[in-house]
Amino acid sequence: MKNILSLCLIALLIGCGSKPTSSPSADSDTASSKPRVALIMKSLANEFFSTMAKGAQQHQSEHADDYELVVNGIKDERDLSRQVALVEEMVASGVDAIVIAPADSKALVPALRRAKQAGIVVVNIDNQLDQDVLEMEEVSIPFVGPDNLAGAKKVGDYLAESLTGSSPQVAVLEGIRTSFNAQQRRKGFEAAMEEAGIPIIDSQSAEWEMSKANTIASSMLSEHPDIAAILCANDSMALGAIAAVKSAGRSGDVQIVGFDNITAIQNAIGEGKVLATADQHGDQLAVFGIEAALKEIHGEGAGNDIETPVDLVTAESLSKK
Q: Residue 230 in contact with residue 173, Cβ under 8 Å?
């Protein structure tokens, strides 16, 4: 009878799903020893950010023993409330670090301050947070990314050299005006045109979007038929400008430049539809931020800004690859 009771007890324990005690404790120790890094980006509908995500995931797969990665993005680059909510969700989930490409240079600062107060390492990539707001919120967050002004000026300088004829006029399609990178790219374009003595006759924000850029560029071309070039603060807007120029029957007549070096623009450069763009190495930009965050987690970082590369991309540079 005792043997039967013993067998029943064992069966009951197995039925309740008991497991060897060594496995869960070992898994728990392994998981707790690896920091969790959250990557929060802007719109994953934009190839630049999907490329950024893939680069980060590839890096994590090659360093799986070093950290875990959580990738997030918003559907619309203007959806600031959703990006703020993502920061708060990552704080609540207990991540060790947040690497963020903020959709707005000012609006995300209070949420990131709260993340830092919760003991989370925060690294800013792509679009630099507003220094005045950081000071007002009494928080320091390192920026890991390119000099957007310098990158845009390289593109603008190359365009200026290509423009011919007497007194060429150009237009600018800006990004979201509250974003620091949009402001810096506009300033880079302006500096290049001013240096070359080329007037900017129209400058409007298409908020990084291709369809809006198409509409605005079409209006610009109609209102200013002598436009010789359109400088676009990102490649998605450059694609919109290409469509507008084609609809206006001015393909080959109006030069277009962009910023980001997405695949579609590389193809357009090869086809002569776009003159140049800037490559800020989107596949590595999040990786640079993640590596900086891991150093901070391990007490090896200094909390300083880190400037990353930005290079001019032309038909000539693409042909050398």
A: yes
Residue 287 belongs to domain with CATH number: 3.40.50.2300
282-301 per-position pLDDT tens digit: 999 999 999 999 999 999 98
Judge whether 1 lies within some domain: no
Would you say 128 and 187 are in contact if contact means Cβ atoms under 8 Å apart? no
Whether residue 200 sits in one domain with residue 103: no
Q: How far is CA 273 from CA 100, 159, 169, 240, in A?
A: 33, 13, 18, 12
155 class by beta-carbon count within 10 Å (0-12 exposed, 13-18 middle, 19+ buried):
buried
The one-letter amino acid at 304: N
Neighbours of 182 (CB within 10 A): 22
CB 221 within 8 A of CB 245: yes
119 sits in the region (left: phi over 0; alpha: psi -120 to 50; else beta) called left
User: Is 13 among the domain residues?
Assistant: no
Please give the residue range of the domain that contains residue 86: 34-146+283-308
For the full predicted model, state whether its pTM sits above 0.90.
Answer: no
Cα atoms found within 13 Å of the Cα of residue 155, Cβ hemisphere only: 39
